[in-house]
Amino acid sequence: MASVQLANVTKEYVSGTAAVSRLTLDVADGELVVLVGPSGCGKSTALRMIAGLESITEGDLFIGGERMNDVASHERDIAMVFQSYALYPHLTVGENMGFSLRVGRVPKRERAERVRAVARTLGLDELIDRKPRELSGGQRQRVAMGRAIIREPQVFLMDEPLSNLDAKLRSEMRAEISDLQARLGVTTIFVTHDQVEAMTMGHRVAVLREGELQQVAAPYELYRHPANLFVASFIGNPSMSILRFAVEAEHRRLAAGPARLDIPEPVLARRPGLLGTAEALVGLRPEHLRLAGDAESGNALDGVVRGVEALGSDTFVRVECAGSAESASDAAAGGESPTPGGPMVTVRAPGSASARPGQHCRVAVDLDEAHFFDPAGDPIR
Amino acid sequence: MKRQIRALVAVVASALFLFPLYLVIANALKADEEIVNQPAKPPLPPTLAGLSAVVEGGEVTAGLRNSVLITGSTIALIMVVASMLAFALHVSNSRLGNALNAVILFGLILPTPVILIPVFRVLKFLSLQNSFPGLVLFLCAYYAPFAVLVYRGFLRSVPKDLIEAALMDGASYRFIYWAVVLPLLRPATASVLVITGVWVWNDFLNPLVLLGPLQGNTVTVGLYRSVGQFSINFGELFAYMLVASAPVLGFYLVLQRHFVRGLIAGATK
Question: Measuring CA to CA, which residue among A343, A352, A174, A198 is closest to residue A261?
Answer without folding.
Answer: A343
